[in-house]
Amino acid sequence: MVKWFDLERRLKMQNTIDQETEAQIRSEAQRWKSIMERLLAIIQFLSSHNLAFRGHKETITTDSSDRSGNFLDLVKLIAKFDPILREHLNHATNKTIARNHYLSKEIQNEFISLMANHVVKKIREKIIKNKYYAIILDCTRDIARVEQLSVILRTTYMETATIEEHFIGFVAVETTTAEDLTDYLLKELENLGLTLADCRTAESRVTTMDRIFEDWNLILGDAASSSVQAQTFFGTLQRLYTIFSCSCHRWGIPKEHVDISVKPLSETRWECRVESVKAVRFQLSKVCDALLSLREKSTDCSLISECHSLENKISTFEFVVSLVIWYDILVKIHVISKMWQSPNMNLDVAINHLKIFLKWLDEYREQGFESALVTGREIAGEIGLSEITFKSTRQRQKRRLFDYEASDETPDLSPMNRFKISYFYVVVDTIRTSCEPRFEALKCHENNFGFLYKTMNLSTMSDEELLNNCKDLQVTLSIGNEHDIDGLDLFEELKIFSSVMIEVESQQKKKEKLNKME
What we know:
Structural class: mainly alpha
Oligomer: single chain
Helix content: 55-70%
Radius of gyration: 35 Å
Number of strands: 5
C-alpha cells in the first residue's frame, strides 16, 4: 500500500523513473493537439465559405502552385508563419512521419462529419427546448442525376422571440412520390429524436400566410390588366426599356441624359413596376431628350419610327397622368410590403397597415384624380406639352344585327370623365376588391391571435371577453382531446402579465417625473 501511495505522489510531482518519457509523451500529445486545432480551423473556414477542399493533385509538397486544392494551399500558407504547422508540413513532405500526417481527404471528411453531427445535435437540443417546429422539404437533382431531398427545420427561439431556420442535410431518394417522401421524412425525424406531433406544418391546427407577398403581385397584375389603357401604359414602359437595351451603344445614350436608368417589367416581381414607373415619373423630360438623341444618331428607319412613336406616346397628357396615378399607388404598396418583410413585424401592425392602405385607397378614389391632374400639369409643363388636355376618342358604333335592336345610347362623356371612369376608377376599384379575398388568411390570424398582440389593451379588456378569446384559441389549437394550450391557464397568465405591465408603466411614469424635476 505504501508503494502505491509513493507512486501516486511521484506521478503528481512528475518525479518517476520514466519522467522523461512521460514528458515526451505529453509534449507530443500537445503538439498533435495544436496541429489538429489548426487543421480544424482551416476546415471550418472552407466550410463556412462554401469553398472546395480538394484540387487536381493530392500530393503534399511545399510548392504553392501545384494546384493541390484550397485545403492544402491554406496549410502551406499558414505554415509560412506558424512554426508548428511548418514543422509538421516538412515532416509530411519529407515522409519522416511514421504514422498518418492527417492532411488527406479522409481526415477532411471525418472532421466535416464530426462537425456536422455536433451542429445537428445542437439544433436538435434547441428544437426540443422550443418544442414546436416546422419542416421545409425540397428535391433537387445533382450533377450525378441523383435526387436529393433537402431537409430544413424552422423553429421559434423563445429567448429572443426570433424565427430560425436550420439546414439538416441532404437525403438521397430514389422516388419522389408523396408516400416515399413521407417515409424518408419520418425516418429522418426518428434519427433526430423528434416527434411528428410537435410539427406545426403537418396537421390541421396549422395556419399559414405563405402567399402573402405573392398576393401583392397578383393584385397589381389584375390591376395592370384591368383596362386597355393600363395595359398600354405598362407596354409603353417596356418598349422604352427594350429600345434602349438592344445594344451597348443604345444603352449608353440614356446614361448621358438620365440619372436613373429605365427598368424592365417582370411578371413575377411586382416591385419592378415601382422602379420602372419611378425612372420615367421623375425624369420624363430627360427620357424624351434621350429618345430624341437616339433618333438623331440613328440611320435605321424602323428605329427612327419607333423613337418617334414613343416620343408621341409619352408626351400625351393621358400618359403623364397615368405616371402620377400608378406611382402614387405603387409607392404606398411598396412601403407596406417592405414593412411586412421586416423580421420584427407583428400581426397587429400588419393588419393596421392593411386597414390604413384600404382607407387611403378609398380617399384616393375620391380625391386622387384631381391631385393627379395638378401634378400631371406640372410635369407636362416641364416637357413643354402644348395641349394639357385629354384627347377625345371616336366612340365605337356597335353593329345592329336586327332592326328591332335598340341603338347604343352610351352617354356622351367628356374625354376627362371618360378617362376617369374607364381607367382611374377601374384600376383603383380592382385593387380595392382584390385586397379583400386575398388577405383572408391575415384576417383569420387576426381573429385567432389578435388579442395576444394588443398587450396594452389587456388591462381595459373585460374578464369575460378575455376568457372567451382564450377559450376560442384553445378550440382552434385542438384536435379531439389534444390541446396545445389550456384556455383557463392562458387567461390567468394574461391577467398576471397585464398587472405586471401596469406596474412597469407606472414605474416608468414616476421615473419620467423625477427626471423632469431634476
